[in-house]
Amino acid sequence: MTGGARGYVALVAGVALAGALLAWSLGDRLPPGKASGIALGAALAGVGAVSWIVVADRGRRHPQWFMMLLGLGILGRLVVYGAALIYVALRTAIDPVYLAGSLLGFHVVYMVLEVRFAMKGLRQAGRGASDGSRHVG
Predict the structure, then answer these.
(1) How many CB atoms lie within 10 A of CB 102?
(2) C-alpha span between 21 and 68 (Å, rounded)
């Protein structure tokens, strides 16, 4: 993994940890199951974002696999998020509405970071191509 990817992974992990800790600290002010839903949503969305950043970073070395891995990553997120929501709704005391809201909210926050990571990679690739040091085709 490149240094830039490590930085974004650390940032995502920090946001996920901060969200989970905030949820747990508010646990005594929220009804039962709500803080757990927020913390679980922050963690699951964080794992999804980290996996995308790792795939995008690895895709630079194997561009022919990049789109396939990206599509599988999106599908994987949907499956994991859906399975977590179904499991929580049927088998636990965690509030599925708070889990869904947390997944959505943290997913949006992480998407901003993912787009910044992707744009940084595109800018670097563009600079490499403009000076003739990299040929794609």
Answers:
(1) 25
(2) 35
Encoded tokens for 93: 């005391």
- Residue 120's H or E segment, with its range, is helix 96-130
The single residue listed with the structure tokens 């920090």 is 14
The residues spanned by each domain of the chain are: 3-122
* pLDDT tens-place string over residues 44-81: 999 999 988 888 888 777 777 777 878 888 898 999 99
Q: How far apart are CA 23 and CA 20, in angstroms?
A: 5
In Å, how far are 22, 29, 95 from 110, measured between CA atoms? 17, 26, 22
